[in-house]
Write a structure and sequence with these properties.
This protein has about 290 residues and is mainly alpha-helical. It contains eight helices and two strands. A two-stranded antiparallel sheet has the order 1-2.
C-alpha cells in the first residue's frame, strides 16, 4: 500500500500490477512485467520485419516461377528443333520421330496432327522433280488423256485404233522411264507399278496378236490393257495430292488415310468399269475396225 494519497483520477499502482498479472495468467503468458509497455512499443517493428520477409519470399517465388516457365519454353523449342532434325528422306513419310513430344511442361500440349503436318511442310516427303521426271510426267499425262479418250469412244484399248496405239506407246515409255528414276535410292512402289504395267502390256499384246487364249483372248486383252490405266491413276493421284498446289499441297504424307481411300475408290471404279467392259466384249461378234 502506498502512503501517498492518490488523486481521484489516478490508479493505484498495486491494482495495476495485479491486473497485469491476472491478464498474463489468463492468456497463458508466464511473465508480464512492467516491461510490457516497452514490448508493446517494439511490436510494430517486429510485424514490419515479418511483412518485409514475407514480401521478399513472395518476390523470390514469383521470380522462380518466371524462370521455370522460361526454362520450359526454352526446352520446348529445343525439342521442336530436335524433331525437325529427325528427318529421313528415304523413309515412307520422310520423317522419323525418335521421342514422343506430344506433351511437355505444365499444361502445355501439342496437337500431334498439327505437329505432323507442320513437320511435313518443313521437310517435304516428296523429292523435287528432275528433268527425267518431267519427261516421265509428260508421258504419263499423254497416256492418261489418250486412254480415257479411247475408252470413251471405242469401249476398249487396242492396237487397232490410233488413239489406242498412242496410249500403249506412251504407257510403255512411262513405265520405262519410271524404272530409271531412283531419287530415293531404292526400289519403291513406283517401280513395282512400272513392272506390273510392263507385264500387263506384254500379256495384253500377246493376247491381241497371238490369241493364245482362244475366244477369251479379247477378254484378256481388255483386262490387261485396262489395268494399265489403273496403274497410271495411282501415281497420278498420289503425286497430284502430295505436290499440288505448289508450296501448300493437299496432303503432306504418303501414309495419309485420304490416299488410302483414294486408292480404294480407284480399285472399285476399275472393277466396275472392267465388269461393264467385259459384258460389252461378250456382246461383240467381232472386233470393230476403225481408227481415232
Amino acid at each position: 500500500m502506498h502512503d501517498r494519497k492518490l488523486e481521484p483520477w489516478q490508479d493505484d499502482p498495486n491494482d495495476v500490477h495485479d491486473q497485469r498479472n491476472r491478464t498474463a495468467r489468463r492468456f497463458g503468458f508466464s511473465n508480464l512485467s512492467t516491461k510490457g509497455s516497452d514490448d508493446a512499443a517494439g511490436e510494430p517493428e517486429t510485424h514490419e520485419a515479418e511483412r518485409n520477409a514475407y514480401d521478399r519470399q513472395a518476390q523470390q517465388n514469383a521470380t522462380e516461377d518466371v524462370a521455370q516457365k522460361n526454362y520450359e519454353s526454352t526446352e520446348y523449342e529445343k525439342h521442336k528443333i530436335a524433331e525437325q532434325r529427325h528427318y529421313d528422306p528415304c523413309s515412307d513419310d520422310g520423317l522419323i520421330i525418335h521421342e514422343d513430344y506430344s506433351s511437355f511442361g505444365s499444361g502445355r500440349t501439342v496437337d500431334p496432327v498439327i505437329a505432323s503436318r507442320q513437320r511435313s511442310i518443313r521437310e517435304p516427303s516428296m523429292p523435287e522433280i528432275i528433268p527425267l521426271g518431267w519427261f516421265h510426267t509428260a508421258l504419263g499425262v499423254t497416256a492418261l488423256i489418250s486412254g480415257v479418250y479411247t475408252l470413251a469412244k471405242f469401249k476398249e484399248l487396242s492396237l487397232e485404233t490410233r488413239s489406242g496405239q498412242i496410249y500403249l506407246v506412251a504407257t510403255l515409255l512411262t513405265a520405262g522411264t519410271a524404272l530409271a528414276i531412283f531419287q530415293r535410292g531404292e526400289f519403291g512402289p513406283g517401280h513395282a507399278l512400272a513392272v506390273m504395267t510392263l507385264l500387263a502390256l506384254a500379256v495384253g499384246t500377246v493376247a491381241a496378236t497371238l490369241k493364245p487364249f482362244g475366244r477369251f483372248s479379247r477378254h484378256v486383252q481388255a483386262l490387261s490393257y485396262s489395268s494399265t490405266l489403273l496403274f497410271h491413276c495411282i501415281p497420278a493421284v498420289t503425286d497430284g495430292l502430295l505436290r499440288l498446289p505448289v508450296g501448300d499441297p493437299v496432303l503432306t504424307s504418303i501414309e495419309d488415310p485420304i490416299l488410302t481411300m483414294c486408292y480404294l475408290g480407284l480399285l472399285v471404279l476399275f472393277l466396275v468399269g472392267v465388269g461393264f467392259q467385259l459384258r460389252w466384249v461378250n456382246r461383240q461378234p467381232a472386233r470393230a475396225e476403225g481408227s481415232a
